[in-house]
Specification:
Length: 391
């Protein structure tokens, strides 16, 4: 495969903007109408995400082949859509038809062969992972909402109770479908380490114009039945009893997976009396967005291994630390630490640049690749997701 040719051709196609996903979906639904029900009724938030993610993954297949874990996670997670091998064929055919349409004479035998070979690699990894996963776990997990707390005007804390064990690691994410928005899934990170009773806490921020987050914050209620996908991601996880000191940088509800890791470390400290040094910086726009302040302040007072810093960016009257959380994080002691970064895409990209600029090796900075892209990175995003990752 000619990776450079794949990337160049995809860059040329994306210059056609919204015409690309429109053509792709028209072709897909006309040639394979049976897949239409796998997508949400409203495609407004789906069109660009699906095609851009698909093209980006395939055109950078040379990078993906060096680390298949992301696609394996993705293949397992897509079982919740009842995706089978034949669906990958349908998508591949429509992708190639779209490329041919927009590339014109450039779509020759060699380039078509490179795209076919690249797509085959992606599909094979995902299908194999899904098949192996299906041998010992369900396509999705049924769960019930057991608690809903509107913590702020635009933030709700939700506790759900799966009907069977969901095995996840602190720092991973789960996709969820709520009854108010059927066939539309969003990723959320448990804010707790696994519990004996299996319950899971979620921190949900309402996004302006967001179909799922708005419905969840305003209308989700105790007793509602929800579905959970397979756990995905490992960049924000740590091995049990790992003594590497951590700098945690959270933006908004990006706090959730880091809270789960904190709980994991605290359990270890209570068991064996030792823990790595951890400094958590929580960045928000306004001080009232520090929704978990009491718990985190108590933890900082009671645990010798934990420090906590609140960072507010948009309130000039705030008497504490002000500014962008990534900038503040870059002023901390970095030697010998690993960083975990979680928040919105812009916050994550800014923090990565600040930490790298301050001398932290990039291999020591951890963030989820299937959520975020740093300014100069080519990364993968979920391929067959009906709803995408963000509102």
């Amino acid at each position: 495969m000619d990776a450079a040719a794949l990337q160049r051709s995809w860059d040329r196609v994306t210059k056609h903007g919204h015409d690309v996903p429109l053509f792709f979906y028209s072709h897909l639904f006309l040639t394979h109408p049976e897949v239409r029900d796998m997508f949400p009724l409203s495609m407004s938030s789906q069109r660009d995400k699906f095609v851009s993610a698909l093209g980006r993954i395939v055109s950078h297949v040379d990078q993906i082949e060096t680390d298949e874990r992301f696609l394996q996670h993705l293949g397992r997670d897509h079982r919740k859509y009842a995706v089978i091998a034949e669906h990958y064929n349908a998508v591949g055919v429509s992708l190639c038809a779209t490329l041919k349409h927009f590339l014109g004479p450039e779509w020759d035998e060699d380039l078509a062969g490179d795209w076919a070979a690249a797509y085959q690699v992606i599909a094979r990894i995902m299908v194999e992972a899904a098949e192996i996963s299906s041998e010992d776990s369900p396509d999705w997990f049924d769960a019930e909402v057991v608690a809903v707390e509107r913590r702020m005007m635009d933030l709700t804390l939700v506790r759900i109770q799966p009907r069977q064990e969901v095995r996840f690691r602190p720092g991973q994410s789960l996709s969820m479908e709520i009854p108010q928005r059927p066939q539309t899934w969003r990723y959320f990170s448990p804010a707790n380490a696994p519990r004996r009773d299996g319950s899971i806490d979620l921190h949900v921020q309402q996004i302006d114009g967001g179909q799922v987050s708005t419905a969840l914050v305003r209308h989700l209620k105790v007793g509602d039945a929800v579905k959970l996908g397979q756990p995905v991601g490992d960049r924000l996880t740590r091995q049990d009893h790992d003594q590497t000191d951590l700098l945690m940088v959270a933006g908004g509800t990006g706090l959730a997976p880091l809270r789960a890791v904190l709980e994991q470390i605290d359990r270890e400290w209570q068991q064996v009396g030792s823990a790595p040094r951890v400094h958590l910086l929580h960045g928000v726009r306004m001080p009232w967005h520090l929704y978990d302040r009491p718990v985190l302040r108590d933890l900082a007072r009671e645990r010798p291994w934990f420090d906590y810093t609140e960072v507010v960016s948009d309130d000039p009257s705030y008497p504490g630390t002000r500014g962008k959380v990534g900038t503040v994080a870059a002023r901390q002691h970095l030697n010998g630490r690993a960083a975990m970064v979680c928040g919105g895409p812009q916050m994550v990209a800014h923090t990565l640049e600040e930490l790298s600029g301050a001398g932290m090796p990039t291999e020591h900075i951890r963030y989820e690749h299937f959520y975020y892209a740093a300014a100069s990175e080519h990364i993968a995003a979920p391929v067959l997701s009906r709803a995408g990752d963000f509102e």
